[in-house]
UniProtKB/TrEMBL annotation:
Protein name: ABC-2 family transporter
Pfam family, one: ABC2_membrane_5
Source species: Lacrimispora xylanisolvens
Membrane spanning residue stretches: 20-47, 82-103, 115-135, 147-164, 184-207
Keyword vocabulary terms for this entry: Membrane, Transmembrane, Transmembrane helix
Range of residues in the leader sequence: none
């Protein structure tokens, strides 16, 4: 797996200008007062999505046939994509959060704990994002995978619309429910979200392994 990680990190290095631009843009947005939560979410998602690009690179020009002549297993290949996504997304999240905290400190602002908790939540969301997109990309490839992802996003929005409509039908105040959930202590909530994220990633990993084992090169 180490060799696969090095390969993907070298691919990342080839696009270092793009990612440096993202960081400078993020720092600029924070400097002019753009919402820190938005910037952290944006950068974390961008870097996590590079996992999809790495899979596309591997697929290009029948690259799998070459990769699996090396001493790696399909299980290791699938696992590496999740590790790589966590490393890139997590690193980006930490760097931007540190910049946001520095900006917040310079401005004498409060809410440091809230910012840290928010960054952690977005890191969990990036794990859930990987849990969905990695098996889709491995199964359908770049072009078809994009269509499937659009369909999945559409389903998520449709589910949200149904929930809102159902809440109105049953006269349920969603803001009250959200306020009740956020009133709980941060520790237990973060623990539950972490467990959910890890369970989703593990389930996704098993699906990805099954997909890779069925692939013919």
């Amino acid at each position: 797996m180490k060799g696969l990680l090095i390969k993907d990190l070298l691919l990342l290095k080839n696009q270092q200008r793009f990612f440096l631009l993202i960081f400078f843009m993020s720092a600029g947005m924070l400097l002019v007062g753009v919402n820190s939560v938005f910037v952290i979410n944006y950068v974390t998602l961008i870097f996590t999505m590079f996992t999809l690009s790495s899979i596309s690179y591997d697929e290009f020009d029948n690259g799998y046939a070459f990769l699996f002549t090396l001493p790696i297993t399909r299980n290791q290949y699938a696992a590496e994509k999740y590790v790589f996504g966590f490393v890139t997304g997590g690193s980006a999240c930490i760097i931007v959060t540190v910049i946001a905290l520095i900006m917040n400190f310079v401005r004498g602002g409060a809410g440091t704990l809230e910012l840290l908790i928010t960054a952690l939540l977005y890191l969990f969301m990036s794990l859930l994002f990987m849990a969905v997109v990695v098996p889709v990309q491995l199964k359908f490839g770049t072009e078809k995978g994009r269509i499937v992802l659009i369909f999945i996003i559409g389903l998520i929005f449709a589910a949200g619309f149904i929930v809102v409509k159902a809440a109105k039908t049953f006269q349920l105040d969603l803001s009250t429910v959200i306020a009740a959930l956020t009133s709980f202590a941060a520790g237990p909530v973060i623990t539950v979200l972490l467990l959910i994220s890890l369970a989703a990633v593990y389930g996704s990993y098993l699906i990805s392994v099954n997909i890779m084992k069925k692939k013919q090169f």
